[in-house]
Amino acid sequence: MNRVVVTSVAAITPIGNDVETSWQNLLAGKSGIGPITRFDPADFATQIAGEIKDFDPTVFINKKEARRMETFTQYAVCATKQLFENAGWTIPEEEKDRAGTIIGVGLGGLQSIEDMHAKLLKKGPGRISPFFIPILIANMAAGQVSIEAGAMGPNICTTTACASGTHAVGAAYTDIAIGRADVMICGGAESTITQLGVAGFNSMKALSVRNDEPELASRPFDADRSGFVMGEGAGLLLLESLDHAKARGAEILAEVVGFGASGDAYHMTAPPEDGAGMALAMTAAVREAKIDPSEIDHINAHGTSTKLNDLCETRAIKKVFGDHAYNIDICANKSQIGHLLGAAGGVESAFAVKTLVEGIIPGTINRDTPDPDCDLDVCADGPREKQVNYVLSNSFGFGGTNACILFKRFAD
């Protein structure tokens, strides 16, 4: 089996249009949640979201190509440009068949569906764009990233709801570990802050309606949490086999040492209250790394700010780690960026790698009133300077799908 390392990360988030800005704002405790501007939300129960600000795709993509991409694909392609800029590298012609792309997307082109359906009703089927289907399909992010990077290896989209991005990282890690590829671009992208998206989640009572205090609305593990806040963006990692990274003289940021996936086999949208499926995925990642659970010193939690998810994740962590759970520094990035759905695992994986490199664990904001049933240490007092050796990043999604990826501080 090949050892797998991370040699670059990139992110476009509600708190920054590149990974370094996002990281600095994360450490500063800045919230990216505000009033929805994409449409008039006056008639909606939820009127807030974590939107990307001041995003201009033509900085990285020519105007004609950008018009033929849904927003989630624009995010993925622009993040790819940044990923390779950060790496200071491009894929050589002779290596393109050994480089692949796996991008997680939860819902795909929801805005295009809304726009084209309105046009269909108003002007008839003859006015539907020939680019409609290619633009909206979820795998177009991976497809366009493959074109951009010249990656001719595996070209795959993972669509597993809110676990999509983490499943993508796990699948990419596996492909390199077993020798299917030497280099993989992986992570997640999403942009579903649309009328249908907000209305759909509102009908499920899943979103926070704390419209008068947007920056306080996402509050993972807090007793007063009342639902998640939708976000958008992209988070990507460049993975390579250790041998390939060394051969080209790459800077190695971290190592991927474990991946776990499981199913709840329980309910369409709700996890079982004991968090059994979540625990299985965490256990599998730790077992694959061949380490003792007591060696995990940081968890980047799924932490959605919903009543049931945060409770179940807390119980699952206790189930896996026992008393050691109280010694683990836990953070919930969604308190600041909202829930990026299919992109969440990609962005949170990028932040997990930054934690290993920088030796700083981000805080969790808005955890003002501790929930006695969510009594683990979620770094509510802010960022902590600490050398971290292992970071477990959790993602759980509708359909009872669970994914956990385990990163290690790199040591040759």
TrEMBL record:
The keyword Lipid metabolism applies. It comes from Pseudodesulfovibrio piezophilus (strain DSM 21447 / JCM 15486 / C1TLV30). The active site is at 162 (for beta-ketoacyl synthase activity). Pathway: Lipid metabolism; fatty acid biosynthesis. It comes from the Bacteria. Keywords: Acyltransferase, Fatty acid biosynthesis, Fatty acid metabolism, Lipid biosynthesis, Lipid metabolism, Transferase. Involved in the type II fatty acid elongation cycle. Catalyzes the elongation of a wide range of acyl-ACP by the addition of two carbons from malonyl-ACP to an acyl acceptor. Can efficiently catalyze the conversion of palmitoleoyl-ACP (cis-hexadec-9-enoyl-ACP) to cis-vaccenoyl-ACP (cis-octadec-11-enoyl-ACP), an essential step in the thermal regulation of fatty acid composition. GO terms for biological process: fatty acid biosynthetic process. One of its GO terms (cellular component) is cytosol. GO terms for molecular function: 3-oxoacyl-[acyl-carrier-protein] synthase activity. This is 3-oxoacyl-[acyl-carrier-protein] synthase 2. It catalyses: a fatty acyl-[ACP] + malonyl-[ACP] + H(+) = a 3-oxoacyl-[ACP] + holo-[ACP] + CO2; (9Z)-hexadecenoyl-[ACP] + malonyl-[ACP] + H(+) = 3-oxo-(11Z)-octadecenoyl-[ACP] + holo-[ACP] + CO2. Its EC number is 2.3.1.179. It is an enzyme of class 2 (transferase). Residues 1-409 form the Ketosynthase family 3 (KS3) domain. The keyword Nucleotide-binding does not apply. Belongs to the thiolase-like superfamily. Beta-ketoacyl-ACP synthases family.
